[in-house]
Every structure is written in C-alpha cells, then in structure tokens.
Amino acid sequence: MPESAQSVGQVPGYSATKEAHLKRLRRIEGQVRGLQRMVEADTYCIDVLTQVSAATKALEAVALSLLEEHLGHCVAGAIQAGGQDAEAKVKEASAAIARLVRS
Q1: Is CATH 1.20.58.1000 what the domain over 18-102 is classified as, yes or no?
Q2: Would the pTM count as exceeding 0.85?
C-alpha cells in the first residue's frame, strides 16, 4: 500500500480478522472458478447469473466488513488524534463508501 494511504508501521483495521477475511476471499475465489466452469459447460444463463449474484453479494459482505473495521480502527484513531490526518481519513472513507454504493 502506498505510504500516502497508510502510515508506515500502522496496523490495518482488519488485522484482528485477517484470517477470516482470507478464508472468505478464498471461498469467493472458488465461486468464481465455479462460474468459469459453468460457462465452459454451457450452463443455462439464469443459473450462471444466480451464481454471479451470490459471488457479488459475498464480495459486498467482505467490503462492508473491511469498511466497518476501517471506520472503527483507522478513522476513529485519526479522529482521536485530531489534526489534518483526521479530516483526510474521513474524506478517504467517504470516497470508499461512494465507490461501494456506485458498484
């Protein structure tokens, strides 16, 4: 991660749940591979779309969890410390929320 986005040596907000996130992401990776197999096997369109929706929802759940941890750890810590970093973290979080809403 670039230094501008995270201070050197700062622990990410998700560090306590890193293994759970990795487990979920591996499961999603398996879902996407399953989608590839479905398309290769000429599976009915609606069945593929149903699985795309499931994978999308799973990714959204990971994103929301990461966002919650970011707000509770990184943003809250920056606000407690005060200064320009606090304002930057709030703007950064707002931009991330906007990206999630648009996706």
Answers
A1: yes
A2: no
